[in-house]
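My current task is to audit a protein record that another person submitted. What it holds is a sequence and that sequence's fold in token form. Thanks in advance; the entry in question is below.
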Amino acid sequence: MRVLVAYASRHGATAGIAERIADNIRADGHAVDALKIPAPAADPNEYDAVVIGSSVYLGHWEKSAKAYVHEHRDVLAAKPVWLFSSGPLGDEDLDEQGRDKRVVAEPSDLPELVEAVGPHEHHVFFGGLDPKQLGVGPKLMRTLPAGRKLLPAGDFRDWAEIDEWSHGIARTLDAP
């Protein structure tokens, strides 16, 4: 099958996840393109299945990823689709209130995305933060102790989890 992995990544961590997903599905025998949104070449009509991912900031997917889903909603709704989000930071699975960081990090626009395309699944992956990649506002925020706690630097992506999820997509595509 031909698979598109389309993604929106602000600072590169989500791009790394998307490339890893594409590599794994490719290793499982499928033809895969990983393309950053917006990309004219990311036409879902050309593919049998689509994986769409976005970084999450302030509780929302990147505008370009949301626009892509809405622009192609009819085509995507007729294909196997998976969604992923990248966002939580840190080494702990729970936040200070004892809530699962993946659940808390689900984008508030997820219900509209799910309604638009009816994905097989949505998965939240931990992301990464390189302070050198930040804009002025987040850099200033990180000068405060509370800001460094909220935006810890490091790569928190769980590659084994990403591998397992992406190989699961390939298994689903291979099922009769």
About this structure: Residues 159-174 form the longest helix (16 residues). The CA atoms of residues 17 and 26 lie 14 Å apart.
